Amino acid sequence: MPHLWEIPGGGCDEDDPTILHSLARELEEEAGLRAVSIGPLVGGGYVFATRSGKVVCKYNFLVTTDADAKANESPVKVRLDPNEHQNHVWAAAEEVRAGRVGEVDIKFTTAEQKQVILDAFQVRRTILRGSAAGVEGGIATG
C-alpha cells in the first residue's frame, strides 16, 4: 500500500515455530531491528479479509528492540526492505493522533492500524506506571 503508514508486520511462515518467532523474523526482515523482548499483546486479534480474499487474524504486541537499548545514540539504524517500505518515522502518541511527524504527513493503511498504535501507547503508559510502583516493565515503542 504505497504512501500509507503501518507498523512492521507479516504472516507466519511454515518454518516459524511460534507466532512470536514470526514477529521477530518479520521485524528483522522489514526494519532491520532485533526483538529483545516481546509482550504484552495489544488488544485482541483483529480478523479481516486480505485483498486476495484470504481471512486472517492479526495480533499486535509491544516489542522492545535493540534500537531501544541504543535510544540515546543518534541516529538509530533502521534498515527497511525497499520491496515493502519506503520510509520510516519514530512517532509520539500526539504525532500519531495528529497524523503528522515533523514535516511528514502520516496516513495509515486503515483506521484500525492507527488505533492499535494509540492503544499500544496506552498499554505502555500503564506498564510504566506499574514499573514506578515496583512492577517489572521496560517495554518501549517507537
Report on the structure:
- The protein has helices at residues 19-31, 66-69, 93-98, 111-132, and strands at residues 35-49, 55-65, 100-101, 104-105.
- It has 142 residues and is an alpha+beta fold.
- It has a single domain (19-132), classed as Nucleoside Triphosphate Pyrophosphohydrolase.
- The strands form 2 sheets. Strands 1-2 form a two-stranded antiparallel ribbon. A two-stranded antiparallel ribbon has the order 3-4.
Identify the overall geometry: globular
What's the main sheet like? Answer: 2 strands, antiparallel
Uncertain segments of ≥5 residues (pLDDT<50)? 134-142
CATH architecture label = Alpha-Beta Complex
Order of helices and strands: HEEHHEEH
- Number of H/I helices: 4
Using only C-alpha atoms, the radius of gyration works out to 15 Å
CATH C-level category: Alpha Beta
What do we call the CATH homologous superfamily? Nucleoside Triphosphate Pyrophosphohydrolase
CATH topology: Nucleoside Triphosphate Pyrophosphohydrolase
Average of pLDDT: 84
Spatial gap, N to C terminus: 21 Å
Strand order of the largest sheet: 1-2
> How would you describe the oligomerization state of the chains in this entry?
single chain
Sheet/helix structural class: alpha+beta
Beta-strand content bin: 15-25%
> How many strand elements?
4
